[in-house]
Amino acid sequence: MEAHAKTKSLELLNSSTSLYSLPDVYFRLRSVLDNPDYSMAEVVSVISTDVGLTARLLKLVNSAFYGFKSKIYSVPNAIGMIGTQQLQDMVLATSVTRTFAGISSDLMDMDDFWYNSIYCGVAARLLASRCDFFDCERLFIAGLLCDIGHLVMYQELPELSQQSIRKSRESDAALHDVEQEIFGFDYAQAGGVLTRQWKLPRILQHAIRYQLNPTGSEDYFLAAAIVHISRELTTAVEADAGTEPRDLKISPEIWELIGLSPSACDSLCEEVKAQVGEISNLIFPGNRP
Predict the structure, then answer these.
(1) Cα–Cα distance for residue pair 181/184, rounded to 1 Å
(2) Do 123 and 230 form a contact (C-beta atoms < 8 A)?
(3) Nearest alpha carbon to residue 197 among 48, 27, 4
(4) Which of 10, 26, 101, 265 could staple 22 via S-S, CB 3.0–4.6 A?
(5) What predicted TM-score, i.e. pTM, was given to this entire model?
(6) Where would I find the H helices in the chain?
């Protein structure tokens, strides 16, 4: 592909990300939480305006995902248990599906896409816990959104996207390498552009942008490395390939970054399987169980 065409693709990517906006409820909640003098009543008021979101919040905090011993019946109690940061991330997770609700399924089965995204998010959360990462819940969101760049590419550049998928399969080359050849950028860079446009927390921006080369992020290389491994595991499961961590195509440098060996993660896949179905139904009701 000529350099001029690649430049045009990159320009289209940068301009098209502005077309994808998160629902108002996410920005209203963020506006409230950005005020250091916010009250719990203001937070509850924002959440309560969205009946579906309220129901998912209560189901989620009462699920095995959090494992609280006592039943939680009210929004204030739910927020008190999980905290406002996790609340904001949960709203973000449910908001993203609304943003891309009308995307064409010609290139991707959207139920499969969100299921795999949740699989990656759960894997990232569990992996983060194993290496004592300070914010496991936020890594769930990073894993969940790690493939979000593909949605923009498939929507805005469908023909080139189809070409890259076909070439990757025929040549057995990594999809992101083929995307660099055809587009001049890959899905991780596209995700980085989108999350920057949305002004998401920098840890999410970097974990998504640098998931293919974690050392490229000076500040959040550990988060990016965790997402990198989780994405590789998800891809292997999706392709029905070997799913033991030692079978994944992950460099020793990446394992060294997170301070774990492949053998320390032997049961990771089983743990993910135990959670992913329930979380899928809670966050994205109606999608594949």
Answers:
(1) 6
(2) yes
(3) 27
(4) 26
(5) 0.87
(6) 3-16, 24-34, 40-48, 51-61, 75-82, 84-99, 110-130, 136-144, 148-156, 158-171, 175-182, 187-197, 202-209, 221-238, 252-258, 268-283
Give Cα 10 distance to the centre of its chain.
22
Mean pLDDT of the chain: 85
Assigned CATH topology for domain 1-20+104-289: Hypothetical protein af1432 (1.10.3210)
- 170: buried, middle or exposed (CB in 10 Å: 19+, 13-18, 0-12)? exposed
Nearest to 85 by CA among 140, 128, 41, 132: 140
Mean pLDDT in residue range 31-57: 91
What one-letter code names the amino acid at 181? E
Enter the tokens of residue 97. 């599906």
Is the pLDDT at 75 greater than 60? The verdict is: yes
The domain ranges of the chain are: 1-20+104-289, 21-99
The DSSP letter of residue 288 is -
Tokens representing residue 137 in the block: 């819940």
